[in-house]
Amino acid sequence: MPITFQCAHCKKTMTVKDELRGTKGRCPQCGTILMVPAPPAAAPDGQAAGPSRAASSAAGQTPPARTEVTLGGGKVLIIDDDADFVRLMAMRLKSRDCQIVAAGDALSAISTTRKEKPDVILLDIGLPAGGGFAVLQRLMNSPQLAGTPVIVVTATDPSQTREKALNAGAQAFLQKPVNMDELLAAMQKALGKS
Fold first, then answer.
1. What 3-state DSSP class applies to 96?
2. Domain count, the chain
3. What angle do CA 150, 155, 159 make, to 5 degrees?
4. pTM assigned to the model
5. I want to staple 129 with a disulfide (CB 3.0 to 4.6 A). Which of 16, 33, 105, 159 is the partner?
6. Are residues 106 and 184 both part of a single domain?
């Protein structure tokens, strides 16, 4: 029998197979790691116990404690052709007092970087009009732009891209769907705030 529950972070409602109860997964919308509610455990006296903390938070009641990260009003350039991802990241980062600018392809990425002078760049590898590695190489080879920290956030296979991205000058490599806590930690480190 399917079970329906809600992501504690973005409030997306999900339905999964009953056999997935008690397992971990990622929210398809925001990437938050969550626990599929387990079946109610029997209390020692034989009566059903109340919902677990994981089930309560997954149902949207009391979310687990999250580390509050302040990025201090930094300007973030998101270079990604996925408009939904850009909107989601913009929404989340604006709540952390960040200014957001975006570029949707490799061609506009460099000109946007020069014009906007971001404090940190979130770069997708799978970009139209040149690709993310070409953008990363151009950024690192430009004396005016080489000091801008780049965090690669991509859905491409990490076994083939992680090492290449880090060797090319990226500060961090994160896989989509992105874990926000990991992204914020990488951004803090890149901005020298950790």
1. coil
2. 2
3. 85
4. 0.66
5. 105
6. yes
